[in-house]
Amino acid sequence: xxxDITWMLLGLPIAFALGWLASRLDLRQLxxxxxxxxxxxxxxxxxxxxxxxxxxIDAFIEAVQKDPDTSELHFxxxxxxxxxxxxxxxxxxxxxxxxxxxxxxxxxERAQHALSLDFLKAGLLDRAEDALRKLDGTxxxxxxxxxxxxxxxxxxxxxxxxxxAQRLQQSGHGDFASxxxxxxxxxxxxxxxxxxxxxxxxxxxxxxxxxxxxxxRPRIQLAAxxxxxxxxAGAFELLESVQKYAPQALPLVAAELLRxxxxxxxxxxxxALLTQSHEEFPSLDVAEAIVQAxxxxxxxxxxxxxxxxxxxxxxxxxxxxxxxxxxxxxAHEQAHPTVQxxxxxxxxPLARYRCAACGFEAQAYFWQCPGCQAxxxxxxxxxxxx
Length: 386
Ligand SMILES: [Zn+2]
Known about the structure:
Elements: H1 2-49, H2 53-66, H3 71-83, H4 87-99, H5 105-122, H6 125-133, H7 141-154, H8 158-170, H9 177-193, H10 198-211, H11 216-228, H12 232-245, H13 250-263, H14 267-280, H15 284-296, H16 301-304, H17 306-314, H18 318-325, H19 336-347, E1 353-354, E2 361-362
Antiparallel strand pairs: 1-2
Helix pairs in contact: 1-2, 2-3, 3-4, 3-5, 4-5, 5-6, 6-7, 7-8, 8-9, 9-10, 10-11, 11-12, 12-13, 13-14, 13-15, 14-15, 15-17, 17-18, 18-19
The protein binds zinc ion.
């Protein structure tokens, strides 16, 4: 018994001393590590500044391993992986951050946002969508909605796009009325072409006209639908309404307006409307339709062609000049086809449409630019008239 007590009396201070020593060692070790973590961090930074991304990544990985609780380093590493196109590794870093229970709310939101960018850049749109939806109620919410809108447009999910655009509009991010009309037009086109359901297409287009009266596209598309069903008078009436609601878009419909007018016996009415439009905005397409309407009304060709001259007096135009010359007698008649061919060749690129946002050029008119995906970025004018 005595023996044990002696040992206990001796042992206690020894154990205490050993404990104290161990704790000192621990502290020293911690200090060394703490000093090493920033060292690795600065090494990484240095590599980054020298544009040595591989070495920077190695240094950051070392720093993260030494100090797994530092979120800043994880963010730096994740962004580096993403920028280098190593999306899988970027995802792993950000998912690791999100799995940490001790992560502050603002860092959690930031990691969620970074994760959505990883998926987006990797082209994994479904997973990007999931990640973006989790940003509702965070400070990244609006940015997430805008990205979601772009995703839905790209994947042509129009009802979801419309829902997102409405949210953005309600939170004061601009007027999406004409964009929403485009979505309805896209849905109508799908209903007509894929589902062969003209009744639904008509309802969608009518809704677009009611919601965005100033938009030209729903009127033009509904007119085409009616004309396709044989209702030429109804189609003409709709195209006529373009002059009232979206006069700048009349050049786009001039030819079809004249065609439906003639098919429903209203050539004179069309001629009057086209002449009035040309007075307000001289346009090549309108001038061309006027010439055709005059000819159909029995005006002598010589007189009808004067419209090209009248147009050129207002707006110099190679296209109009070539069209006028096509029926002008030449002193050297045998040279006419060659000269005409050269003129037409020179005029052809001028008859294209051009996106005002990115410069994409096309023979056809686009409501959404195939180059930059912008809506309504093509002016309804030929390049020569811009
Ligand atoms: Zn464009």
